[in-house]
Design a protein that fits this description.
The complex is a heterodimer of chains A (about 900) and B (about 110).
Chain A lengths: L1 H5 L10 H10 L2 H22 L1 H15 L2 H4 L20 H18 L1 H29 L11 E9 L3 E4 L6 H8 L3 E18 L2 E10 L1 H6 L4 E3 L11 E5 H8 L8 E4 L3 E9 L12 E4 L3 H4 L16 E7 L5 H16 L2 H6 E7 H4 L11 H30 L3 H9 L4 H38 L11 H28 L2 H6 L10 H34 L9 E5 L5 H13 L3 E7 L10 E6 L9 E6 L4 H5 L3 E4 L10 E5 H7 L11 E4 L2 E9 L14 E4 L7 E6 L4 H15 L8 E2 H6 L3 H35 L1 H9 L4 H35 L10 H28 L2 H5 L3
Parallel strand pairs in A: 4-9, 6-8, 15-20, 17-19
Antiparallel strand pairs in A: 1-2, 1-10, 1-11, 3-4, 3-7, 3-10, 5-8, 6-9, 7-8, 12-21, 12-22, 13-21, 14-15, 14-18, 16-19, 17-20, 18-19
Chain B lengths: L7 H13 L5 H12 L5 H13 L3 E5 L12 E5 L1 H19 L11
Antiparallel strand pairs in B: 1-2
Helix pairs in contact in B: 1-2, 1-3, 1-4, 2-3
Classes of the chains: A alpha+beta (about 900), B mainly alpha (about 110).
Chain lengths: ~900, ~110
């Protein structure tokens, strides 16, 4: 009635149509005129006062403020009847909603096990998804907060030798060459990262810190704001430093850090000129002390030898911000090759090539020391998806199985005029109740689990949907998806019931929708569980293989100490003191332990061959004790003689093979020029894994070269470790008073090569466990339901003489068949995926049938326990009980 | 009896209804109140209060003729009942008594 009059006056501004419609829908009939009229009048007044737009907004706001049960509650008896028509023929949706919620809560309350299974499986699934979302978003957000971040690139080096290798670093003159000769970059920031330097404030206060030497431009390329100090002069003046807030607090407490002095190692004293805001957790730049690049010459002159294009240090990096409109591809194609050609001769220009790496790639490129591959993130996203699917499948299965039980309710509702859509929405409301409850529980679970995840990954994430709009949006989206994925199908089934049949109780299992669909869903669940189980088994085996397989040298009970200063006399004193201690078996000095992630490699010229060999050879410098300490077998010739300069070389078998010689003896006594230094090859070592199992054993040589020793390994007797370690500390600190004592065990160091894999494994194990558990919950629910349905059938069978085992088989055959189908689907997929993963390792386990058999056995045992428990109960029921009622 | 207690906002709305006498309906009360209290008041809040007042029998309501300015809808006009007047007087009496009971020195030496 009111609507009709509205249309008569089109000239006047009208309140938003949708809002009026909405109000008409939800307002109780006896209040409609009043509320709409009041709002209309207010609206007209506001249009005159504040204009149309504001008035529309306020109108919407008023509606939100009107929402209250009083708005849709029926007229109370205490108030008298109005002359206005009170029309209840159209059910008020808000009233229906509260009815749905009420019925829903009663239903859930009555069927506790059904509710419990659904809530537990959904909340476990959602909790995992929340964790995965947080983790993935954290990694995707790395270094995305810099202004113009899509114009920031890092120049990296490709070595086109026999095999293509990469370095994150560039030769030190690269930055200047790029700046002086070309005009494509807005800003060029060179930076040298020097990990684990000793920073001294006073003789008593020393800290080990990662520091960086950076161009002033570096700070303007990247968004690390200063909270104290002048950003324009930052890093321009020599002998100054920027430190982060955290470091300032750690060093000086509440005192003002500006102007304070820091001594870096023993070579440099800088005064603090500025304080940077604490580094956000999502950046790969972890140095917290920045010193002008010009000062690098005072600290590590060997890193900045003038115009030295032939050495590439991975920590000497160069970041550029291109001018707008300059394409990275054209820089890659034209400018960087031109730089190579200008500064190298023809052969070397082919060997040293430079490329641009977008900032967004820095975190994700494992070839260039990125933290992880995006592939791993997508694996987690997929696992999260699987978990939600498993939980939704449970819901669909249980809900359709239960549907029959509510046929009477549906029949009554339909007879009273409920439409299909109303029934559908009723079911969706119930699903929302369960899913909403699960979401809240899941948030709680995720909140409890996040400290453990943080610990595993050594990060600091938080889950708080109230302060994190992305998480909130994600959760709401997830809720909608889960509700519709799991509620839509059972809702449709329910809404389709024929009222007459439903009321008579004549609906059969067939009318609640194909059992085949439910079978299909169970197969999906089994397949997902098996996929995860196979994955877990393979990753576990490979990691165990990496940790337990003989690497070709002895790695147990070996302590590694850093050597801050390798002056010969100091080293000798240390060696003498250490070897005198009881429990010490060997002492050796070297630059890299037998297995390490990175190793310098260089060219080799053998014997009197006219040209350089076209393979590169890894080089380790160590004294003559290295071979006996690590028990590296010598296959031919002898160990090195003691020396401090490069005189003799030990090579490994791979070198002999690469040189194309038939017998190991053939190299002995020959000269080789490696890294520009000639020496005699005196022996051949047995091949050992000097990098991780991901890469093949390549040519390697060992030589004495005292200048570069920076570590010391001590083989100790584990029986009496504590006093020995205390002795080390005492001797070491006496020799290096200005440094900080640390020690590590070699085997821990080697395990760190597989750190990411171990973390991956633990997560996959956890997720696989949850997937299996959720799947079992669903299975249990389904079997319980089947048992209830088949009560009479079982009774009749038993009366007619069926044995318990044959009744068990009634359940068993169904699930065994589904399990086998699932296996047929999962096995090839798992085989393919895991083959891809194992291809990352040169030394790997074989994908044998054993793992697959084990996987199916595990699922079979778990499934039969779940099914068995419930079906034994059904099979043992006395038939008298089940049949008596007939 | 449950509900005869007069809440603070209820009291203010009831007073406004009495004051507006023959023209007390939603919008008028909202405007009067926002002006006096110097803060925006939502219609929903006033509306619910008036419903409660009616349930308590403190006001009586009737519908006006449909009005064009309201999009052809009628107003619901409220008038105060005797019970309403009594409740207001009672509230006022309690307040007066409380005021009178305050010793003169109580407001001296305040922080």
């Amino acid at each position: 009635m009111s609507q009709k009059n509205n249309t008569n006056k089109p000239s006047q501004p009208e309140p938003p149509r949708w809002a009026e419609w909405l109000l008409t829908q939800i307002t109780a009939p006896h209040l409609r005129d009043e509320v709409l009229g009041d709002l209309y009048e207010l609206f007209q007044k506001r249009v005159q006062r504040y204009g149309n737009t504001t008035a529309q907004l306020v109108y919407a706001l008023e509606i939100v403020l009107l929402l209250h049960p009083r708005l849709w509650r029926k007229q109370t008896k205490s108030t008298h009847q109005y002359p206005k028509p009170t029309d209840y023929s159209q059910p008020n949706p808000m009233n229906m909603l509260s009815n749905y919620v009420k019925i829903g809560i009663r239903k859930l309350n009555r069927q506790k096990s059904y509710t419990l299974i659904n809530v537990v499986s959904l909340s476990l699934g959602i909790a995992c998804v929340i964790l995965i979302f947080t983790l993935v978003r954290y990694h995707l957000s790395f270094d995305t907060f810099h202004a113009n971040q899509n114009r920031i690139y890092r120049i990296y080096t490709e070595f086109h030798g026999e095999k293509l290798t990469y370095s994150t670093g560039v030769p030190n003159p690269m930055g200047d060459a790029f700046r002086n000769d070309y005009n494509v970059a807005q800003k060029i920031g060179r930076i040298a990262f020097l990990p684990k330097r000793v920073v001294t404030i006073s003789p008593q206060k020393k800290f080990e810190e990662d520091i960086a030497f950076a161009d002033a431009d570096f700070m303007s390329i990247f968004n690390f704001p200063l909270i104290q100090g002048n950003s324009r002069s930052a890093l321009r003046e020599r002998n100054t430093a920027l430190i982060t807030e955290r470091i300032a607090k750690k060093y000086f407490g509440e005192e003002d850090p500006i102007g304070r002095l820091l001594r870096i190692d023993d070579s440099l004293v800088v005064s603090i000129k500025g304080v940077l805001q604490n580094l956000p957790p999502n950046t790969d730049f972890r140095s917290e002390i920045y010193i002008p690049f010009g000062n690098l010459q005072n600290h590590s002159p060997w890193m900045v030898e003038k115009d030295w294009w032939f050495s590439v240090n991975k920590e000497m990096q160069c970041f550029i911000q291109l001018k707008p409109g300059v394409l990275a591809a054209s820089v890659d194609a034209n400018i960087l090759p031109a730089i190579s050609n200008k500064h190298y001769d023809k052969d070397m220009a082919k060997y040293f090539q430079f490329r641009l790496q977008p900032l967004a790639d820095v975190h994700f490129n494992p070839k260039l020391r990125g933290y992880t591959e995006k592939k791993n993130l997508w694996t987690f996203v997929l696992i999260g998806f699987f978990l939600v699917v498993t939980a939704c499948v449970n819901f669909i299965n249980l809900a359709t199985a239960q549907a029959l039980g509510r046929s009477r309710e549906i029949g009554v509702r339909k007879a009273l005029g409920s439409e299909r859509s109303a029934l559908f929405w009723q079911f969706i409301t119930e699903t929302t109740l369960i899913a909403g409850l699960s979401l809240v529980i899941a948030l709680g679970l995720a909140y409890l689990a996040i400290p453990f995840v943080n610990q595993w990954f050594d990060i600091n994430l938080a889950i708080n949907p109230f302060t994190d709009p992305y998480l909130l949006t994600f959760l709401l989206g997830l809720l909608v998806i889960v509700v519709f994925c799991s509620g839509a199908y059972p809702g449709l089934i329910l809404a389709r019931f024929q009222p007459v049949l439903a009321l008579k109780g004549k609906l059969s299992q067939r009318s609640v929708g194909g059992f085949s669909l439910r079978r299909g869903l169970v197969v999906t669940q089994f397949a997902i569980s098996q996929l995860l189980i196979i994955g877990t088994l393979i990753v576990t085996n490979q990691i165990r293989y990496s940790q337990q397989t003989d690497m070709g040298f002895r790695k147990d009970a070996t302590v590694i100490l850093p050597i801050p200063n390798n002056k010969k006399s100091t080293i000798n004193t240390l060696a003498a003191q250490l070897s005198e201690m009881s429990g010490v078996e060997n002492v050796t000095f070297f630059d890299t332990p037998p297995a390490s992630e990175f190793l310098a490699s260089t060219g080799i010229r053998f014997d009197s061959r006219p040209k350089k060999e076209d393979f590169s050879i890894g080089i380790k410098s160590a004294d003559y004790q290295y071979v006996p300490t690590f028990k590296i077998p010598i296959l031919a010739g002898r160990n090195l003689y003691p020396s401090d300069t490069v005189r003799e070389y030990l090579v490994n078998e791979a070198t002999v093979k690469a040189l194309g010689l038939a017998s190991l003896k053939a190299v002995i006594g020959k000269t080789a020029t490696i890294n520009g230094r000639p020496g005699t090859i005196v022996g051949v070592m047995k091949d050992f894994h000097f990098k991780s199992f991901r890469v093949a054993i390549e040519p390697l040589c060992l030589t004495t070269w005292g200048e570069v020793y920076n570590h010391c390994a001590v083989k100790v007797n584990m029986a009496n470790l504590e006093p020995t370690l205390a002795g080390f500390e005492k001797a070491w600190t006496a020799l290096y008073p200005s440094s900080i004592y640390t020690y590590r065990f070699l085997d821990e160091e080697i395990d760190r090569l597989y750190k990411l894999d171990s973390m991956l494994l633990r997560l996959i194990q956890a997720f696989a466990g949850i997937a299996i558990f959720v799947g079992c919950l669903g299975l249990y629910g389904l079997v319980s339901f089947m048992a209830a349905q088949k009560r009479k059938e079982i009774g009749v069978r038993k009366v007619l003489g069926a044995s318990t085992s044959s009744i068990l088989w009634l359940f068993g055959k169904e699930f065994s068949r589904l399990l086998l189908i699932a296996f047929v689907l999962a096995a090839p997929l798992a085989w393919w995926v895991m083959k891809e993963w194992l291809n990352n390792f040169v030394y790997r386990i074989e994908l044998g049938a054993g793992i697959f058999v084990l996987a199916i056995l595990v699922t079979f045992v778990v499934a039969s326990l779940t099914v068995g428990f419930r079906s034994v109960k059904a099979a043992l029921t006395n038939p008298v009980k089940t049949l008596r009622t007939e | 009896m449950k509900g005869t207690q007069l809440g603070e906002f209820e009291e203010i709305v009831l007073l406004t209804i009495a004051r507006l006498y023959d023209d007390a309906y939603g919008v008028a009360v909202v405007e009067e109140l926002s002006q006096r209290l110097e803060r925006p008041i939502s219609l929903g809040f006033v509306h619910r209060t008036m419903q409660r007042l009616e349930e308590k029998g403190l006001v009586h309501s009737r519908f006006s003729e449909p009005i064009a300015e309201r999009g052809g809808r009628s107003k619901r006009l409220f008038t105060i009942t005797m019970a309403g007047e009594q409740a207001l007087r009672e509230a006022r009496r309690i307040r007066n008594e409380l005021w009178e009971g305050i010793p003169k020195t109580a407001f001296d030496n305040l922080l």
